[in-house]
Each structure stands twice: as C-alpha cells, then as structure tokens.
Design goal:
By secondary structure, this protein is α+β, with helices and mostly antiparallel strands. It has three helices and six strands; from the N terminus they run ββαβαβββα. It has helices spanning 30-38, 52-68, 104-117; strands spanning 8-11, 19-23, 42-46, 72-77, 80-84, 88-91. The strands form two sheets. The protein has a four-stranded mixed beta sheet. Strands 1-6 form a two-stranded antiparallel sheet. A hairpin with a 2-residue loop joins strand 4 (72-77) and strand 5. Helix 1 (30-38) packs parallel to helix 2. It starts with 7 loop residues before the first strand and ends with a helix. Mean pLDDT is 76; it is low at 102-120.
Length: 120
C-alpha cells in the first residue's frame, strides 16, 4: 500500500497561490511571516536556527494568527511548519496535519519513527 504525500492547494479566488518560505534567525522575523499570512499567502517556516523555546514561541504566534483568519497549521517536517490562510483550500493526507505540538522535537521523532515502520 502506498501513501500519497502530495498536498493539493487550490485558491478559492481566481489568483494563483503564493508561497513565502522563511528560515527564521530571530523571533523578530515572525512579524514578516505574519504580514505575509495576513496578505493571504501560504507561509513555510523553517525554525531549525532557533532555540527550542524561541521556536515554540514563534509557532504559537503563527498558529494564533492562522487561527484568527480561519487558516490551517500543518507540520511538514522537523521544525518546519506550513501556515495556510482560509483563502486557500488545503487537501492533505490526514497524517500530515497535526495540531501544534508543545514539544517540537518530540513530535518530529514520533512521526519519524512511524514513517520508519510503514511498509511501502
């Protein structure tokens, strides 16, 4: 049995979706990410350069901003998150959509161990 990990993005309005990819080096850069989200752009945040506590704070801020505009938060990899505004329809396998974890590193190791045991 194969698992399809493709995510289909369709914009509800007629404009093509835009994606902003950011690798944050400080918490202050979160404002730029929130601004992009407010402009109805998808935001991919790579948090591997931040300490655990700072990364958690950034995810909390972004998840709150995403929730405020009825968007979705998707955990896509170790300390990498996708924030999708409500203007973009998200279709993803259920296993890739996770609530924001209070322990980013623990969440990633749990998911990785599940992937390792999956037979293709």
């Amino acid at each position: 049995m194969t698992q399809n990990n493709l995510i289909d993005f369709k914009r509800i309005d007629s404009q093509p979706p835009e994606v902003v990819v950011m690798e944050l080096r400080s918490e202050q850069e979160t404002c730029k990410a929130l601004q992009a989200l407010q402009e109805r752009k998808m935001v991919v945040l790579k948090l591997n350069r931040l300490s655990f506590d700072k990364a958690q704070r950034v995810v909390d801020w972004m998840a709150g901003g995403t929730h405020a505009i009825d968007g979705h938060t998707v955990w896509i990899g170790e300390q990498t998150f996708l924030f999708v505004p409500s203007s973009i329809q998200l279709a993803a396998p259920k296993t890739t959509v996770h609530p924001v974890s209070p322990r980013l590193s623990r969440r990633s190791s749990e998911v990785n161990s599940k992937k390792a045991s999956t037979k293709i």
